[in-house]
Design brief:
Oligomer: heterodimer
Order of helices and strands of chain A: EHEHEHEHHEHEHHHEEEHHHHH
Structural class of chain A: alpha/beta
Helix content of chain A: 25-40%
Number of helices of chain B: 3
Strand order of the largest sheet of chain B: 2-3-4
Shape of chain B: globular
Largest interface: A-B, 20 and 14 residues
Number of strands of chain A: 9
Distance between the termini of chain A: 43 Å
Distance between the termini of chain B: 16 Å
Shape of chain A: globular
Structural class of chain B: alpha+beta
Order of helices and strands of chain B: EEEEHHHE
Number of strands of chain B: 5
Strand order of the largest sheet of chain A: 7-6-5-4-3-2-1-8-9
């Protein structure tokens, strides 16, 4: 038997703790507590095993990864292992001394999140008073350090009209890249879908704003489209168990950060097996790897090795079966559920905030 | 769009911050690591890029490769200038 290709990147969710409480948080509804987190030795082993397996880039994420006092040590180890290190942070815990330590440790890149361009909009989503000013200060410090920086904006019904101002802020703060990411509707995002999902008109306007900015040049724009408005699914994670591996704060190893909702399968943990064995041999990673698992209409579809059947978590959330075609696909017998969600989304002021 | 002529034989180039050349031991490939992506480089490109040290000029690199591979200098020069111009335009390299 030939082994699967090794993963290219590792998402290291160091902690689920975070000073913000965004209602579209990508963490699972069941957040892991501090007592369950891997210790420093545990994370060092994950990084060593990842490099050995073939991972090239490690994304230190959370929660807020800067809540971990051993972040600098882990970044230094990543550098020693020749792993490209990216810090995905809200910036609210960053100061000059911490940034200097990360810089010295060899951090390669920072992705700094913003919830909005206005203080009111940012505080409504993040729930932390004064966060916007701290983020802007963080961006200035990062800019001064010379570490390459991407600004990340998650967009939704309430802030999508301000995309042009988001680009202006990115240019003003000297970011080389900006990521405009439509909210993904899993976990917390799915709970808040009616309040967050933009209308078709809003989406068209957003796409126009992105195209106009790209035409100006000088700023690299990464645009994550909202798949609810698409008629073909996204190649979620580049295919299940093909390029990407996620390790949760407690050491669970997942093909994507939302995969813990998949029923009837064991979630392997780095404390019980090697990363290599988990990647190559675990039932979880082989469950939807490749194309053998696919039902129709995927099985006979010419796009099956382009989109890999779309997102398993979305199939589960919207059709009740993770092995179904992603209902975003217009060929899915459940596609009407996606269309209905778009029709029914509305201004709904109550947001459900992420919390333990 | 920058003109290709901005990379000349006397230019001294190095990788921009956040970019580096790396051998991928597991897949036996040469890659350039970049913000939130890595791309594979093939053919003569790894031989050229491994000589970028922020001190050697482009002309020195051409000469060294011409000696190393016993190839006509003008053939090497064309490849080297095309690659380094492209990567400079993409902000992977800078002077």
């Amino acid at each position: 038997m030939t082994l699967p290709s090794p993963p290219m990147s590792l998402l290291a969710e160091l902690t689920h703790r975070c000073p913000l409480s965004c209602p579209y948080c990508s963490n699972p509804l069941e957040l892991e507590r501090k007592a369950a987190e891997l210790d420093t030795a545990g994370w060092r082993s994950v990084l060593e095993q990842a490099a050995e397996l073939g991972v090239l880039q490690v994304h230190f994420s959370g929660g807020e990864p800067m809540a971990r006092p051993d972040l600098v040590e882990l970044v230094a180890l990543a550098r020693d292992l020749n792993l490209y290190s990216n810090l995905i942070t809200s910036g609210v815990l960053l100061d000059e001394a911490k940034l200097e330590a990360l810089d010295k440790a060899g951090l390669d890149h920072i992705q700094l999140s913003f919830q909005d361009v206005t203080e009111a909009g940012a505080e409504r989503i993040g729930g932390l008073k004064g966060a916007q000013a701290r983020k802007i200060e963080a961006a200035r410090l990062i800019r001064a350090s010379g570490i390459p920086m991407t600004l990340n904006f998650v967009v939704h019904r309430e802030n999508v009209a301000r995309i042009p101002e988001m680009f202006a802020l990115a240019r003003e703060l000297g970011a080389g890249r900006v990521e405009i990411a439509h909210t993904q509707y899993y976990g917390w995002g799915l709970k808040n879908r009616d309040a967050l999902l933009p209308s078709r008109e809003q989406l068209q306007e957003a796409t126009r704003a992105v195209e106009a900015e790209r035409a100006k040049g000088g700023l690299s724009v990464d645009y994550v489209t909202p798949d609810y408005h698409a008629d073909r699914p996204k190649p979620c994670m580049g295919g299940w168990g093909q390029r990407f591996v996620n390790v949760t704060p407690s050491g669970r190893v997942l093909p994507c950060h939302a995969a813990e909702i998949i029923p009837d399968v064991a979630f392997p943990n780095v404390q019980d097996g090697t990363l290599s064995d988990i990647w190559n041999c675990s039932p979880l990673f082989n469950m939807f790897r490749g194309t053998d698992w696919m039902p129709e209409p995927c099985r006979s579809c010419e796009r099956k090795e382009q989109d890999w059947g779309g997102c398993r978590c979305q199939a589960l959330a919207l059709t009740g079966n993770a092995a179904n075609t992603d209902p975003v696909c217009s060929l899915s017998p459940f596609h009407d559920r996606v269309e209905k969600a778009v029709e029914e989304a509305s201004e709904k002021p109550e947001l459900v905030y992420r919390r333990f | 769009m920058m003109d290709q002529s901005c990379v000349a034989e006397e230019s001294v180039l190095s990788f921009a911050r956040g970019h580096r050349l790396q051998h991928d031991r597991v897949r036996d490939l040469w890659i350039v690591q970049a913000p939130e992506k890595a791309f594979v480089i093939e053919g003569s490109a790894p031989h050229i890029l491994r000589l970028l040290d922020g001190e050697r000029s482009v002309g020195d690199i051409i000469q060294q490769l011409a000696n190393e591979f016993s190839a006509p200098r003008e053939v090497i020069a064309k490849d080297v200038l095309a690659l380094l111009s492209e990567l400079t335009e993409k902000n992977v390299l800078h002077t």
